[in-house]
Amino acid sequence: MIVTVTPNPSLDRTYEVPSLDRGGVVRATGERVDPGGKGVNVSRAVTAAGRRTVAVLPLGGAPGALVADLLDAQGIEVAAVPVGGATRSNIALAETDGVLTKINAPGPELTAAERELLLETVRTRSRDADWIACCGSLPRGLAPSWYADLVARAHTAGVRIALDTSGPALLRALRERPDVVKPNAEELAQAVGRPLATVGDAVKAAEELRGLGARTVLASLGADGQLLVTDTGTWYGTARVDAVRSNVGAGDASLAGFLIAGGTGPDALASAIAHGAAAVRLPGSVMPTPADLDPAAVTVTAEVPVDRVLEEPVP
């Protein structure tokens, strides 16, 4: 069972548009409304795979009620933490050429009592969990050390924890030795304070995160594939994707695939890549089912192409 924690969930509206004409009238060709937030997406992907999950998230106002209803309709167990502020609403504009424009609202500010209730809810709902997946940005009212506190509490309870966040919250949490961290290329470069031009640069950055405390680093490199760096080895993998429809939630689907497959080793990396590749072929933030996966399109190797130049280098 996988418990997900989304401190700043959202109600996500995704519009598919032919192209984005700034200042003009853009007519959408498709529209979706989904419960949003990185941890929420992980729970959705876990559920789509037929596994049990509990989504812990603070919810408030009409948007929060709709998020809970949408998750319930998908068969996802919600452990809601009531908050006074309204859950944020986000907008994504997906163009036919794969370019995505996102507008993310800041979300409510949590009070001291709401912060503590959120931690307590995670503690009580994770007693039988195989993994806790903590994902996304922190809302106003939560200090950068909040994730570090959560990692420490999880380890005290004997539960493995995966962390998908960035910036000061990631760096603070590394001190508590999270079992898995899952940065994308931009977050990886930000964490080490230098650009990434090659796969080898990404490997060195991941190793540096391990030196700071991360036990395993699962790094998403976009079109350049994914890296897995552990104390037992380093693996690199890619997947063939013929057409990208939307990359919203693809990284979250990857993390779900990794944890579903045990959260360790090259087989888990292959599962992560298969889930991420399936997600980009689907509209909006739709999470893939087992029928959407194409394991044959995935290649994983221990011979990491360190000299490969990234298609999307991070300055």
TrEMBL record:
Tell whether Cytoplasm is among the UniProt keywords.
no
Does this UniProt record's set of keywords contain Ribonucleoprotein?
no
Do you know which SUPFAM superfamilies this protein is assigned to?
Answer: Ribokinase-like (SSF53613)
Q: Which keywords are on file for this protein?
A: ATP-binding, Kinase, Nucleotide-binding, Transferase
Domain Carbohydrate kinase PfkB residue range list: 18-290
Q: Tell me the CDD domains matching this sequence.
A: FruK_PfkB_like
Q: Cross-referenced NCBIfam families, in alphabetical order? A: 1-PFK, pfkB
Q: Matching PANTHER family, A to Z?
A: 1-PHOSPHOFRUCTOKINASE, 1-PHOSPHOFRUCTOKINASE-RELATED
Family from the record: Belongs to the carbohydrate kinase PfkB family.
For this entry, the protein name equals 1-phosphofructokinase
Q: Which organism is it from?
A: Streptomyces fumanus
